[in-house]
Amino acid sequence: YAMLLSLIFLIVLVAAIVGFVFRHEIKTNFESNLNLALKNYNVTADRHSEAVDTIQRTLHCCGVQNYSDWERTEYFSQRGIPRSCCKSQNDCSEEDLKDPNKAKLKVFVDGCFFLVTSTMESKMSVVAGISFGIACFQLIGIILSCCLSRYITNNQYEMV
């Protein structure tokens, strides 16, 4: 049991270190994937398009860097900026979404990349605290299971 807990502890420790060391590559990868999701965005409910819509609705953002990122997509030439960028769903017509100047007043202008990364970084202290607490419990479990193992080994002669 102690060996299993030690293995899990080491795996979590290595994952945390790798995540910290490669955090810039993770950001770059996320940005390129978000750009790719915008480029391939369509109305057929695929999971990438749903993810983009969910991020834009939840964080009140539009595009990667800003709302004008949509102008370089095939979706924009057909239907304009997606409705998930609208500040108010009732006040957002398709004609407004096709005109970038009108859309600027109707959609969120901030990009999603900065908001996602800043939200993740702001929550990292909570994640780190919870992870530290779990690691402490794992270490206590390792120590107690080693003590139990030694106790059983030392008192084998008393067993019936």
UniProtKB/TrEMBL annotation:
It is found in: Membrane. It comes from the Eukaryota. One of its GO terms (cellular component) is plasma membrane. The chain crosses the membrane at residues 126-152. Keywords: Glycoprotein, Membrane, Transmembrane, Transmembrane helix. The keyword Glycoprotein applies. This is Tetraspanin-7.
